[in-house]
Each structure stands twice: as structure tokens, then as C-alpha cells.
Amino acid sequence: MKSILSLLPLASLLLPLGASASPCIPQGVTITAQQILHVAPNSTTCANAPASTLGECATAAQAAPALSAAFTKYTLTSKAEQAAVLGLIAFESGEFEYNRNHHPGVPGQGTRNMQSPAFNAKYAASIPAIKDQAEAVKDDPDAVLDLLVAVPEYDFGSGAWFLTTQCEESVRTALQSGSEAGWRGFIVDCVGTEANDARRKYWVRAVEALGA
């Protein structure tokens, strides 16, 4: 009879996947359509989207997997940081109706957090799958934006990329506290815009939805 001990290595291979997962392996982030709808209640459908945004509008159901993939890719596991990004992109994109700047219409400005062309150039260059194409059209901001909005994960991933690569660590640390002061610091000191009541409304709803 074989020793029980000799069978242990084989038994360990039969454990359910993830049962003894290494702490070095990052866990995926899941954002649900229901959570997004709490933040952006008008994103149930694109049926009423204006003709000018044809092809731009996304529903909560479409946004959820793209946002989950982006948060996972950029290891955005802090609920407070997730809420800040979700609130920002919901506001800037008109609850996912737009991914291009139509008013006043700045060439190349877009993705769901309405990044400037300069940031979009940096963002596209950071994505291995499109960096060569982005380099080839770097003098055409609209063409760079076309590359980004063509893939939902890139389109919805701009906010997570921006926070994790363009914000000072002190801004992220304050944001991770979950405080309103931390959120205001992110909006004012990193995004570079006004932490007004309209943006705050979306942030509050995102905090509620994610339990941040």
C-alpha cells in the first residue's frame, strides 16, 4: 500500500482552481451593470441617443465588462479609487453617450473620461497592441482617438490608466482614504478641473454603488 504522504502532491493538483491561489496573483475586478446603473441611470439603453453620437453610446451592460477588464489591467483594486474613476467617466461621457468631444469639438479629445489629445497620445503609446499604429498617426489626433475608441477596454480604460500613471502618489493616497477631500484633490490637482456639484453627484453615487 502506498503511503498517504506519497499521495499528497497528487491530491494537491486536484484542488479546485484558486483554492490555494498564490497571493502574488492579482484577483480580477468585477464591476456589474447594476452598479453602473446606480451611477448612470440613463445608461439602460442607447435608443434615445442623438444621431450625432451614432456608434459612441454604450449601455451599462456594455460598459461593465470593459470597465472590469480595465480596472483589472491597471490593478485598480481600491474601491475609493474605482468610485472616483467611475464617477468621473460617467459625468464626462454624459452617462456613456459620448466618447468624443462634440462641444466645442476639440479634435482628438475623447475616450470615456474625455482626455486631451496629448494624454491620448501617451495612453495609446502605452498599449502594446496599438502603439506602432499610434506612432504612425501621431500627427493626427483624431486618428489616435479612433484607435482608442475602437476597443471598449481601451475606451473605458482611459480613466484607470490616467489615475494610475498620471497622478502623483500623494493624490492616490488621499483618494484611497475615501474622503471627500481626497476626491476633490484628485479632480482639482490631477484631472485639473473643478470639483463642482455636478461631478460630486456622480462620485457620491459611485461610492454608494461600490461600497467605497
UniProtKB/TrEMBL annotation:
Using the record, list the residue span of the signal peptide; answer none if the entry has no such feature. 1-21
Instruction: Tell me the superkingdom of the source.
Output: Eukaryota
Q: Which UniProt keywords apply?
A: Signal
Q: What is this protein called?
A: Lysozyme-like domain-containing protein
Annotated source species: Aspergillus pseudoustus
